[in-house]
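Researcher: Next sequence.
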Amino acid sequence: SIRRRGEATMPKPRSRPSSDAQRRPPIRRDSTRVVNRLTTFPTHACWSEILKRSDGKDRVVGLIQYVAMVISGGRPGSVLTSIGFALNDARRPFRLYTPVAVLIDTFLAKGKPKAKGAMRTLECIKAISTAVYVTCDHVVWAGGAGAVDKRSTLYKVCDKLSLMGWAAGSALMAAGHVPDLIAYTRALRDPLASDNKRDDDADEWELREELEEKTVAAALDVASGLTQALFALSLLGATPLKGRQMQCVGLAMGIVGVMRQLVSVPLPPEKTGMGRMGRLPISPSTPMLR
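Model: Next structure:
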């Protein structure tokens, strides 16, 4: 239509540019919580938080144990070898309540989301295997302390069952976290979760940080399960690994265990970056992304 003379003109509303057009340069990757947690590793607060937990004490002492064994090469009579064996026995009390806790959390806990179908079956078998492993391991420890005769059938059976339960439970733990790892990795590759988020979009950035944390945690859980299963199978004689090779697997197992504890440590306020201060559970039961 023709505009009349003297008629006021209304400015046309400016169309909002697309999100791609108004994106700013990507945020530096060293601002994520995962990286910030790694930078808190040497701090007193980090170690205090890890060593407050029985599982944290177990992992840290285990790492020291395998470092000593790798350095000594497992030579009989070596001081470091003796320290390694002593630390192995010292770790047993940290798992005193583990069989009860695992079974209650798996079969009796209420209000906790449970997996279905094959994943639920895997979860139940893993819990039973872990309970058998730790219970029989206590009997083996009692044998080393002289409370149980090492020549008895009870000791020999528990020795085998402990390693078999450890191998089975660890392998199932790794298998149970593989779907989560795949789902989180796919979500990170989604264009909506790319690095090019605007630095003032706190909700989107927070979502990405949480997703990155879950991905790292799932990857460490898979690695922990695989290394533990390999080590247990080696102790059973089911793999060709011997001597120094087994000790290196144990060292890798200890490093992964401590790293997994580190991921669950809450960040101090000055290290939280763009997102909120968060904490991941030691053994996450986060549902797989859909």
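Model: The radius of gyration is 26 Å. The chain is about 60% helix and 0% strand.
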